[in-house]
Structure formats: structure tokens, C-alpha cells
Write a structure and sequence with these properties.
Blueprint (H helix, E strand, L loop, with lengths): L1 E7 L2 E7 L5 H8 L18 E4 L2 E4 L12 E3 L12 H8 L9 H14 L5 H7 L11 H20 L1
Parallel strand pairs: 1-5
Antiparallel strand pairs: 1-2, 3-4, 3-5
Helix pairs in contact: 2-5, 3-5
């Protein structure tokens, strides 16, 4: 076992783990951040997506040692107090949430996209979400939610 210092949602944590332990296992089992889900354990479904220095990664295949010194953002770190992040609001308002299992990963993948591209095309949205599987929605409402979130974020930026 080794000690790892992680920055998660702007807070510093020290955890004990084996170097090959996955970031997902640390987030869920030691930090009680259960928004990232273990869907497949092989990086194929995206339910475990978190942001690592702003990039969407599948935390079930990221060794904890690779997250040291980086900013980790989970779905729990998006809301501003009791106010949902605009991407979260867009998913709710567009009905892009069905069972909710894939939703945290979808939202974080969308955030990574919108942070780099505030006005993506539908094809760019679909490409950004290619590692996130949803078995409930058929993706149309998810794409619509990302487009609406982009609009909300642009309006928010104009007001700032």
C-alpha cells in the first residue's frame, strides 16, 4: 500500500491504495463519491467518466498513480452549492435523463467538450460522447441537452 495525494473537486485527499488501484475504486470506495458508476470495468461504457485536468477519462481504467498532481472533477463537483451547473440543468430540462446510470458520465463528457468548444456541431457532440453508452434514450435528447447547455453557457458568459 502507498499513500496518494489527490485533488478532487478542489479538495485535497490522502488515500491509501495499491499503485494499480483504479481511480474509480478510490472515488467510490474511499471518498464516497458515487456519481461515477462502475458499468463495465473495462473502459467501454463511460459510466465512470470523470474529468482529469479538464479531459474526460474513464476512471475504471485510470490507475490512481496517474491522477496524482492533477485536478479531478466528479459530477459531485459541478453544482454551485444547491444550484445545478447549466449542463446539469439542460439534461433535466431536455429530458435527457432516464434511468440516470450514464448521466454523470455524459454530463462530464459534455463539459469537457463545451469547455474546449462552446459552439459544437451535432457531429462534434456525438463524437465527444462516443465513449459514453446509454441504453435508455437513443441519444437524441442527450445531444439536444448538450446543444441547450452550450446556449446556456454562452448566455452566462455574455452576462459575466
Amino acid at each position: 500500500m502507498e499513500t496518494f495525494r489527490l485533488t478532487v473537486n478542489n479538495r485535497i485527499f490522502e488515500v491509501q491504495a495499491r499503485p494499480n488501484a483504479t481511480l474509480l475504486s478510490i472515488l467510490r470506495d474511499q471518498l464516497d463519491l458515487t456519481g461515477a458508476k462502475c458499468g463495465c470495468g473495462t473502459g467501454d461504457c463511460g459510466a465512470c467518466t470523470v474529468l482529469l485536468d479538464g479531459e474526460a477519462v474513464r476512471s475504471c481504467i485510470v490507475p490512481v498513480r496517474d491522477a496524482v498532481g492533477k485536478q479531478i472533477t466528479t459530477i459531485e463537483g459541478l453544482a454551485r452549492g444547491s444550484e445545478l451547473h447549466p449542463i446539469q440543468r439542460a439534461f433535466v430540462e431536455c429530458g435527457a435523463i432516464k434511468c440516470g446510470f450514464c448521466t454523470p458520465g455524459m454530463i462530464l463528457a459534455a463539459k469537457a467538450l463545451l469547455d474546449h468548444n462552446p459552439n459544437p456541431t451535432e457531429d462534434e457532440i456525438r463524437a465527444a460522447l462516443r465513449f459514453n453508452l446509454c441504453r435508455c434514450t437513443g441519444y437524441a435528447r442527450i445531444v439536444e441537452a448538450v446543444q441547450f447547455a452550450a446556449e446556456l453557457l454562452r448566455k452566462e458568459a455574455e452576462r459575466a
